[in-house]
Specification:
alpha+beta, 41% helix, 2 domains, globular, disordered C terminus, 431 residues, 13 helices
Length: 431
């Protein structure tokens, strides 16, 4: 299987200059090729309007090989310094631009735009240009031997045993910090899917980040929301105000050194916050995938939720989508099963005691109070219990049918308490 390994680099000043040269070369070639393609298309479009004959061959192609040919034909003219960097630098620029055009043609993205020069960027290398010298050093072609902040022994042992093969590597700069990400083909034994003995339902939220419970109602997990971005908001706002008073980059004007330093402080806060958030998600998902046989979560429409401007910042800070993504591949690694409940399943509105469904439950109501049986419980714990029961054998989940099948949406009218939901036929609009 393909697996990624990410390590923080500790380059010297000379190595920083070389890495920035490679990153800048990738951005330059991407923009240069995009400019050539746009100019060529505009010229051909003008000829068509003028009544001249234009053939398909007159248009520059946007596929990977076509862009490489365009680069080879124009590199001596647009970039006389191209030989200073490795060839994979420009190869991946062509590849990234071809993917951008492909996504535009498929309707997945807008027309490609030019990349801005800033304090972030990345450059990819072929496997032949990257080598692990030992468990603390990475040799990069044209750059030299870079020291890593942490040990790379996990990847290094895979390479020594022959159970891993580096396919490519990407060096990324964010706020003056450099990381290297390896794409590795790893041979690992994937355990057989475990029998559904230990089942947990996970309800994600904003007050409590993760609430886990078993089908019997026992609370198994309670992770308070650390609110990583909100915690550093005061420090971040101050750093942004300082940067806004400096002479930043403008068309035709280079940014001042004081702006670069101020902007670097802003980027470091963002990077540190993202790292802490990602670390918590990794620790939680690894623990769940290793210790539980069946994990049931909700299939949330996060993209639609962030349209609520009052909660968008908090929802983005919680990173529910990343939590779900990590669970998907880690459950495969450790032999557990991930079940996604239908996004319309009323896990929070359903009473875990009697099964009655509330018609309405506002976000401000943190305690679920059933009007049918009088049961009272924390709303997140109530939702986690209902989710856990979807993972029981014999239900419509993957544990009962041998595959992942989402449960059918529950009909509120059929199970709601008479005093909570009306069974009358709704009136037509305007009646």
């Amino acid at each position: 299987m393909t697996q990624a390994y990410v390590f923080a680099l500790d380059p010297t000043h000379s190595q920083v200059s070389l890495l920035r040269s490679h990153i800048g070369g990738t951005r330059f070639v991407y923009n240069a090729l995009l400019g050539l393609v746009k100019t060529n298309w505009d010229e051909n479009r003008a000829k068509v309007h003028a009544g001249e004959a234009v053939t398909r061959e007159d248009y520059l192609g946007t596929r990977h090989l076509d862009l490489q040919k365009t680069w080879y034909a124009n590199r001596d003219e647009v970039a006389t310094w191209w030989s200073e960097n490795g060839s994979s630098t420009y190869n991946y620029a062509c590849l990234n631009l071809s993917k951008a055009f492909a996504n535009h043609r498929a309707g997945r993205a807008k027309f490609p735009t030019f990349k801005k020069r800033g304090s972030s960027g990345s450059v990819s290398f072929l496997a032949s240009a990257i080598k692990l010298s030992d468990s603390h050093h990475v040799r990069v072609s044209r750059v030299g031997e870079n020291k890593t902040y942490e040990s790379t022994r996990k990847l290094y042992r895979h390479l020594e045993r022959g159970t891993g093969r580096i396919m490519a590597a990407t060096v990324t700069e964010r706020g003056g910090m450099y990381t290297i990400s390896f794409t590795v083909a790893v041979t690992r034994v994937v355990p057989a899917t475990r029998s559904p003995e230990k089942i947990i339902g996970i309800d994600v939220g904003l007050t409590t980040l993760y609430t886990g419970a078993g089908a019997d109602g026992e609370q198994l997990l309670n992770v308070e929301n650390p609110r990583h971005l909100i915690t550093v908001q005061k420090e971040l706002s101050h750093a942004q105000r300082v940067a806004s008073r400096r002479n930043g980059p403008k068309p035709g004007v280079a940014p001042s050194n004081r702006w670069k330093k101020a902007n670097s402080r802003v980027q470091k806060i963002h990077t540190s916050t993202a790292n802490v958030r990602r670390n918590l998600i990794h620790e939680t998902t690894s623990m769940l995938a290793k210790n539980y046989d069946v994990i049931v979560i909700e299939d949330l429409n996060v993209k639609g939720m962030v349209k609520n401007h009052s909660l968008a910042k908090h929802i983005s800070d919680a990173a529910w989508g990343e939590f779900s993504r990590q669970l998907e591949y880690k459950t495969t690694w450790y032999g557990s099963t991930l079940v996604k409940a239908d996004r319309f399943y009323p896990s929070s509105k359903t009473c875990a005691q009697c099964g009655a469904v509330k018609a309405k439950l506002s976000l401000t109501e943190r305690t679920f109070a059933c009007d049918s049986c009088g049961h009272q419980v924390d709303r997140d714990l109530n939702a986690a219990i209902n989710l856990a029961r979807l993972g029981l054998p014999g239900t419509s989940s993957g544990t009962g049918r041998g595959g992942e099948v989402r449960p059918q949406p529950q009909t509120l009218v059929a199970t709601a308490h008479p005093g909570e939901a009306s069974t009358e036929t709704p009136r037509a609009l305007g009646a």
